[in-house]
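Hi team, as promised in this morning's meeting, here are the two structures we talked about. I've kept the exact order from the run log so nobody has to guess. The first one is mostly here for context; it's the second one we should focus on when we meet again. Sequence first, then the predicted structure tokens.
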Amino acid sequence: MNTRYQIRELELTTVQQRVLAALTQGATINAAAEANGVHRTTIYRWARQYNAFQRAIERARQVHGETVHDELRGLSREAIDTLRELLRSPDSPASVRLRAAVSIIEATGSALTEPVSDALAADVQIQGAVAKMSDHDLDAAAEPAQLRPRATCATASQNSAPAESAA
């Protein structure tokens, strides 16, 4: 075999095991190397030289990914409860309730097995556009018309006053 490093099997050293433990907990190669007093290129060299170490790195990353996925899945119940509270609370501003509703629609949209009707698709697009509006604009739009400020009489009369004619 004409490679710079001969690939071989080995028992993992204590430092390699500590590096792998750090990777399993989500550390980067740089962080794992620094924490264990080796340079990151040493870890890359070990991975090229030793099949067992390369496989162990892959397994550590897989375990970390599974751990993160499980934690996120556990938090999803709390996220759903929070969305439910925001959506149903009369104390939540209209903009917050709308964003909660849009989040729910977007999250479940990918799970729909039947095609979404054109009307629902248009409604989701409208809600998406409204979700981009500022909180102030949404709150103003949610106010009853009788509570909105009206134009003053002076403003109205200025806009409708005829131009003075030159005499």
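And here is the second protein, the one for discussion:
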Amino acid sequence: MYARVTTIEFSPEQPDEAAMIFDSVRPTLEELQGFKGLVMLSGVDSRSLVALTLWETAADLEAASPVLETVKEAHTHDPPQDHVIVMRSGRMRWTVEDQSLEAGPGDVIVTPAGTPHSYEVLGDEPARVVCVDSPPTAKPS
């Protein structure tokens, strides 16, 4: 069994934000090969959430964090899906609608369904992310 730990900081004005994100992506995680479980931990007064995902093999864990290409032009998902990205390594510039931000390991980017977004890898280090779409896309039969 292999585990990935992700810590998410969130706004004190929206204490349920991080838990809502992970609850919305749980169905997609359950579709991934080798996924065994998700545990979320947070203190009552905490501004962070720790998520622990469990995987059957190291290969399953790595497959859930693809290396991204250098640049992806603005696009939307068809069919529309909420798009949640957790940065694992590297640095990237994400643009969601007209807002740009630089992101690094541990940062979470949420793109609501139907919202145009793009990214650019910054620097020489490859960028790895956990990318989850909700609702999940049907698998080809």
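Starting points for discussion:
The chain has two domains: 2-62, 65-134.
The chain has two helices and ten strands.
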